[in-house]
Amino acid sequence: MTEPILSVRDLCVDYATPNGLTRAVKNVSFDISAGEVLGLAGESGSGKSTVAFAIARLHRPPAFITGGSINLAGTDVLALQGRELRAWRWRDLSVVLQSAMNALNPVLRVSAQFADMFKAHGITTKADIRDRTADLLQMVGIKPDRMDDYPHQFSGGMRQRIVIAMALALRPKLVVMDEPTTALDVVVQRELLEEVAALRHKLGFAVLFITHDLALMSQFCDRVGVMLRGQLIELSTPTAMVAEPQQDYTRRLWASIPPLHPKPGETLVRMKETPQ
Ligand SMILES: Nc1ncnc2c1ncn2[C@@H]1O[C@H](COP(=O)(O)OP(=O)(O)OP(=O)(O)O)[C@@H](O)[C@H]1O
Q1: Mutation test of ligand 1: which of 46, 97, 210 has the most ligand atoms closer than 8 Å to its C-beta?
Q2: CA-based, 20 to 30 A from 56: which of 30, 48, 49, 241?
Q3: How far apart are CA 228 and CA 138, in angstroms?
């Protein structure tokens, strides 16, 4: 493994509930290398999204980070405040969530949404912004001449492509993807992830990837972490995890993949390429 770009150490996240604090993430530690795709698997409620939101500093009360450290490319993520935190998001880390419609403003043209993001990061020349937007849309397979359309004029898959283009605009080091394709049909899901795989190969960003689809995860991720009741109980390559699971829970989790899916590591070779 190369030098880690992200280091998470002993991360603890609590939720304040009427019955007191509940620990949803318990001393979770892991690294992600530059350009690596790390998946988080585990049953619903095991803490995957809570980890992802904490890393992106998107957690809000009643969630509180109560321990540990997060370091991304030399930045102490938990120390970031205010303007510094806003500048860090998009530039060093970006997030792609399940619903593109929630990420995009329905009453603003796509070009205006790119412009807002660029302006917030000091890129203010109109021609420059339009050129960059055109390049980014092109990169995810959307014709640049559609940049002045509204989000509802695109299909769900295209909207998610636009969100991914925006997430990559400032060349972040890490992209957090929490169920990025869940709302899309199976064919579009795969197409989109193949594109993300090709883009990370080209651009070198790392991905923290969360999905309930273990088959998809095994094809897209270099390594997978398994979470159970707030703890990271196992972390290895999908192939090693299936061949020699260290925990009984992991074995049962992988055994749940329907046999119709391809075996881990067998298909979509392009997804497995290591960035240069
Ligand atoms: N707002 C909240 N208040 C209290 N507890 C919460 C809140 N949000 C989440 N939790 C609890 O935190 C734990 C972890 O939830 P989290 O959403 O991170 O799990 P997950 O693995 O991402 O689940 P899913 O796969 O369903 O998204 C769960 O026990 C959940 O009940």
Answers
A1: 46
A2: 241
A3: 40
Q: Are residues 8 and 38 in the same domain?
A: yes
Ligand 1 proximal residues by C-beta, below 6 Å: 15, 17, 22, 24, 42, 44-50, 62
Ligand 1 centroid to 260 CA: how many Å? 30
Spell out the per-residue pLDDT of the chain, length 276, in tens.
Answer: 578 999 999 999 999 999 999 999 999 999 999 999 999 999 999 999 999 999 999 999 999 999 999 999 999 999 999 999 999 999 999 999 887 667 899 999 999 999 999 999 999 999 999 999 999 999 999 999 999 999 999 998 999 999 999 999 999 999 999 998 887 888 888 888 999 999 999 999 999 999 888 888 999 999 999 999 999 999 999 999 989 999 999 999 988 876 544 555 554 434 444 443
Q: Atom 1 in ligand 1: which residue has the minimum CA distance?
A: 62
Rounded to the nearest angstrom, the distance between the alpha carbon of 137 and the centre of ligand 1 is 34
Q: Are residues 116 and 50 in the same domain?
A: no
Q: Are residues 108 and 215 in the same domain?
A: no
Specify the residue with its C-alpha closest to ligand 1, atom 3.
15
What is the number of domains present in the chain? 2
Does 261 lie in the same domain as 211? yes
Nearest CA owner, ligand 1 atom 25:
44
Q: How many CA atoms lie within 13 A of 170 on its CB side?
A: 22
Q: What is the pTM of this model?
A: 0.91
Residue 129 lies in domain: 101-171
Sequence-ordered alpha helix ranges (H) in the chain: 48-55, 82-91, 100-103, 110-120, 126-139, 156-167, 186-203, 214-220, 238-243, 248-255
Let me know whether 111 and 87 are in one domain: no
Residues 81 and 211 in one domain: yes
Task: Say yes or no: 69 and 109 in one domain.
Answer: no
Q: Which two tokens stand for residue 104?
A: 């995009």
